[in-house]
Design brief:
This protein has about 400 residues and is mainly alpha-helical. Helix content is about 60%, strand content about 0%.
């Protein structure tokens, strides 16, 4: 059975209406509407509302079998309608048997029960079953010796939509009466199952999001249970309700104070943020500074690259000049060697020796000049290479800074 269907309680009573109208009553459960599957939906158990605490009427007191009993499930009589369920279908009968056995065994039924028993039960078997189910409706309810009339009245007050005749109850196990009675018992089981599931949920769907309604609903439920037990004093329940509301109000006040303190803190933070410079303007200023720095770095990089080009050109010139000096030196060395060989082969006069010495001195001087020039060029070349290396490093540093 679906537990998503809502059951009717005492109507739409809010906590604010409690002072004007403090009605008590057990939750009304929707009356089953029979269908082809044999599973009935719960719709209504009570035909009328229970009376108020202060002056209850006799709605909660109704006669079953000639005796006065309190029950939240008594109400108006049901109309005679044709049962649309397939009462003679074996699959339907087996389903009803399984449903009835499952409920009885799960709820502590203290008599033997089996599918065979429910194939053609005796009047005693039926009485045990209906007495057990009736006790779930009203724990103090018992049938008299002539239970047939009381069983029919019970289903009538529970608003069972189909008629149960006394003659059928006199011949419970006969093939033409038992299927209808079995379907009626299954309907009552489904009704009780729905009420249990609705109670277990604590009417959370009905009172979802409103704790005040739930507190008042719990109070009404307990008050009506007290009423059903024959008590008329609800002072203790009312004190519990007042204490529950006081506790809830204290929690609400504490939460309200916390929210107010949090609100003040947020206001202070907002005021502080509004008094400080806008993060956007700060970032825009930084962006402008970075753009200016980038422009300066680009200019510096351009100057250094021009200086680097000049140094490279100068270095190339000095390299060419060094190569020329080295060629001149090689030629002078070769000429010197050639002259020395010629001197060794010639017979020299004092005048030739003097002339050769003069030439030698001149050549040595030329060699010394060339070597000095070479050393100067090499030194200048080394200095240019160092300067070029420094300029290249500066250009790389500037580029890295510009891209950070």
């Amino acid at each position: 059975m679906s537990t998503g269907q809502r059951r009717m309680t005492l109507g739409a009573i809010s906590a604010g209406q409690a002072n004007a109208r403090a009605s008590t009553g057990r939750a009304r459960v929707a009356k089953p509407r029979a269908g082809s599957t044999g599973r009935a939906r719960a719709m209504s158990v009570g035909g009328a509302r229970a009376s108020s605490i202060g002056g209850r009427s006799s709605v909660g007191r109704s006669s079953v079998g000639g005796r006065s009993r309190r029950s939240s499930m008594f109400g108006a009589s049901a109309k005679k309608t044709q049962d649309p369920r397939p009462l003679t279908d074996k699959a339907f009968i087996n389903q009803c048997v399984r449903t009835l056995i499952h409920y009885l065994t799960e709820h502590g039924y203290d008599h033997a029960i089996s599918p065979k028993t429910l194939t053609s039960p005796t009047s005693k078997d039926f009485l045990h079953i209906i007495q057990f189910l009736a006790s779930k409706v009203d724990p103090g309810f018992t049938f008299s010796a002539k239970y047939e009339e009381e069983v029919a009245m019970l289903f009538k007050k529970l608003k069972y939509p189909f008629n149960i005749s006394k003659s059928a109850l006199c011949a419970v196990g006969s093939p033409h009466t038992w299927p209808a009675l079995l379907a009626a018992l299954t309907w009552l089981v489904e009704l009780l199952t729905y009420e249990e599931e609705a109670e277990a949920k604590g009417s959370s769907d009905l009172l979802e999001g409103d704790n005040s309604e739930k507190l008042f609903f719990d109070y009404l439920s307990k008050a009506y249970q007290t009423f059903l037990s024959g008590e008329d004093n609800f002072d203790e329940l009312e004190e519990d309700l007042a204490q529950s509301f006081d506790t809830r109000n204290a929690a609400v006040k504490e939460e309200n104070d916390r929210l107010e303190a949090e609100n003040e803190q947020l206001k202070e933070e907002l005021s502080k943020l509004e008094s400080e410079p806008s993060p956007l303007s700060v970032l825009q200023k930084k962006r402008a500074d970075y753009a200016s720095d980038i422009e300066k770095f680009q200019k510096l990089i351009s100057n250094l690259e021009a200086h680097k080009s000049a140094m490279e050109k100068k270095l190339a010139e000095r390299t060419t000049e060094l190569a020329e000096r080295e060629a001149d030196l090689a030629n002078a060395e070769a000429e010197k060697k050639m002259l020395e060989e010629r001197v060794e082969l010639q017979e020299l006069s004092p005048a030739d020796v003097q002339r050769m010495n003069a030439e030698r001195t001149s050549l040595e001087k030329s060699v010394a000049d060339i070597r000095a020039t070479r050393e100067s060029v090499e030194k200048e070349l080394w200095e240019l290479e160092n300067e070029l290396s420094k300029a290249t490093d500066n250009v790389r540093k500037v580029r890295r800074g510009a891209h950070m």
